[in-house]
Amino acid sequence: MVHVNAGDYVVRFSVWSRFQHAAIIVLFSLLLVTGMPQTWPQATVSLWIVDHLGGIFAARWLHRAAGIAFSVLVVAHLSVAITGVLTRRIKPSMLLAKKDFTDAIQNLRYYAGYTDAAPKFGRFDYRQKFEYWGLVFGSLIMMATGFILYFPIAVSRVLPTELIPAAKLMHSYEALFAFLIVLIWHMAGAHLSPESFPMDTSIFTGKIRKEKLKHEHELEYDDLFGKK
Q: Are 145 and 173 contacting, i.e. CB atoms less than 8 angstroms apart?
């Protein structure tokens, strides 16, 4: 929920949202550092990481602990979000709509010079929504495959054993895909774009300047302050 300040800033993100973002950064980094050396154990950097973590057993323990904490965070996020939407305490502003796809096409046309006007966005634009849902579904895949790899014997008793190597492959390459998305998509949009460089700090402070809100989320700005 957005809170309007009397000054130059608008409170855009709650403490809960900022906590989740900070937790994701820590847990994702820990999962990446402890998981990639297990996927490519012969790489020189993998050997260096495992050695500095205290050995492969320490790396596996840290990876599983971070995976459990990450799963708890995902379940908590979805529970709060779904409950909030159903009780109408939270607006479903992250749900995809037809406008998001038309905005994507219009924005590409704008970047290519085929139109003079960029689309106007509400609370979240199509790029943020695509990234969010990619994170949600990617997290569910990682949780499911991680559970299978954590309890392979128990799973093989009720499901085909071929699921174990398939889960290992999915877990490894989904992690690599998520890393590339963060490195290329998220970093470019949130930190390296001309509008945000060197960093968009709103998710850390919870606040955004009114002029930045108007520039990046004009429809939301109009809802809060009226059209000018």
A: no
CATH architecture of 3-225: Up-down Bundle (1.20)
DSSP state of 186: I
Mean per-residue pLDDT of the chain: 90
Instruction: Return the amino acid letter for 7.
Output: G
- Split at pLDDT 50, 70, 90, the class of 4 is low
Mean pLDDT, rounded, for 167-172: 94
Which of 179, 157, 155 has the alpha carbon at shortest distance from 167? 155
Judge contact between 36 and 46, C-beta under 8 A.
yes
Tokens of 48: 């260096």
Distances from the Cα of 43 to the Cα of 38, 39, 47, 171, angstroms:
10, 10, 6, 19
pLDDT digit string, tens, across residues 191-203:
777 777 777 888 8
**Domain extents for the chain?**
3-225
| 83-110: average pLDDT | 94
Alpha helices, DSSP H, located in the chain: 15-39, 44-53, 56-86, 98-111, 126-150, 152-158, 163-180, 187, 202-205, 210-216, 218-225
